[in-house]
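Tokens for chain A. Residues wanted.
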């Protein structure tokens, strides 16, 4: 954890010094400006705020990611207040389900407000997409796991009455709150705050070297946040799939904050390098860069299953990887949201502090 703190501090200090030099260079007199327009992030100021493709899906990801950040924060606060009994794992699951349903308005509000700011017009489709972005994959994966449990006669299979209750709970509370939040977000949204004007014709993208390609950025952007939680993951997996009881909620809260900080800092740094290479497609890249930590979590889960656990058989395999895939999907949505909003604030800051023609 100390190394992570030092890494974040190092990135912040280096990036601030680099930006200071960039501001001084780009804000020089007009006589020297002609020599500076051949490279750097200033030259793409007319394209950097060009809205991404698939705006509705993009905004839905941000909405659901914001919802899960709210759910995670709420569960951690309840745990720190001593609400959960360590011998009853079901209490945490119940709290997460209730918080997920009642925070659906957060997803609708964020998605609809961002979609309106991006000049989106199909806002009804956007709200429906937001409400289904996690609910539909959850239902599909859970249906497979529950069907396998039924086939094996396991007590982990939920009865029809519980299934109907959960579906009704989402229909009566979750979906309406998403719609209400979307209506509020649509009506309260302002125009998109852009320091630069966007041209109608997009600028041609330059060829980038391999070390600035998307796979390299995804690896770096995912590995560093994963390193902040790699140690804690063992205790979490042992609690969920073993007989141990997790009581280190204070440490988990610190790790949670560290992951968010590392994700924000690394995403900002990688977006800066991308813009400096005159590549303005940072919108989706910031989400995938930050969310790629979920791939490392999935890789660790496979290592845990085959080398640290005694689970075997079709039932346990389906249960383990089913829940793990859903957890990694939540990681992707949550960290991707953190990465984008951090990058957006950074991009607005740097372009608001330079002189434009």
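Reply:
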């Amino acid at each position: 954890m100390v190394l992570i703190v030092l890494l974040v501090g190092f990135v912040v200090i280096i990036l601030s010094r680099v930006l200071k030099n960039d501001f001084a260079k780009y804000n020089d007199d007009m006589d020297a400006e002609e020599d500076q327009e051949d490279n750097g992030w200033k030259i793409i100021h007319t394209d950097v705020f060009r809205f991404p493709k698939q705006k509705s899906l993009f905004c839905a990801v941000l909405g659901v990611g914001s919802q899960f950040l709210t759910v995670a924060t709420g569960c951690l606060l309840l745990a720190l207040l001593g609400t959960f009994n360590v011998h009853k794992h079901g209490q945490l699951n119940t709290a997460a389900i209730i918080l997920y349903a009642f925070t659906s308005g957060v997803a609708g509000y964020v998605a609809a407000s961002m979609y309106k700011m991006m000049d989106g017009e199909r806002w009804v489709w956007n709200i429906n997409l937001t409400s289904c972005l996690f609910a539909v994959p959850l239902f599909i994966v859970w249906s497979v796991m529950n069907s396998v449990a039924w086939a094996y006669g396991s007590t982990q299979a939920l009865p029809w009455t519980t299934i109907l209750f959960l579906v009704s709970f989402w229909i009566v509370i979750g979906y309406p709150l998403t719609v209400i939040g979307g209506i509020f977000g649509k009506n309260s949204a302002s125009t998109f705050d852009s320091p630069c004007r966007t041209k109608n014709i997009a600028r041609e993208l330059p060829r980038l070297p391999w070390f600035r390609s998307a796979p390299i950025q995804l690896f770096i952007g995912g590995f560093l946040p994963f390193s902040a939680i790699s140690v804690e993951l063992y205790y979490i997996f042992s609690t969920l799939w073993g007989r141990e009881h997790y009581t280190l909620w204070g440490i988990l809260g610190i790790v949670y904050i560290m992951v968010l900080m590392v994700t924000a800092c690394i995403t900002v740094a990688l977006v800066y390098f991308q813009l400096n290479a005159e590549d303005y497609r940072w919108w989706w890249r910031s989400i995938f860069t930050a969310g790629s930590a979920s791939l490392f979590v999935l890789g660790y889960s496979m290592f845990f299953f085959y080398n640290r656990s005694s689970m075997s058989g079709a039932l346990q395999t389906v249960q383990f990887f089913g829940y793990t895939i859903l957890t990694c999907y939540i990681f992707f949505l949550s960290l991707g949201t953190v990465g984008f909003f951090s990058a957006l604030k950074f991009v607005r800051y740097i372009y608001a502090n330079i002189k434009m023609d």
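The chain is about 75% helix and 0% strand. The chain has a mean pLDDT of 87.
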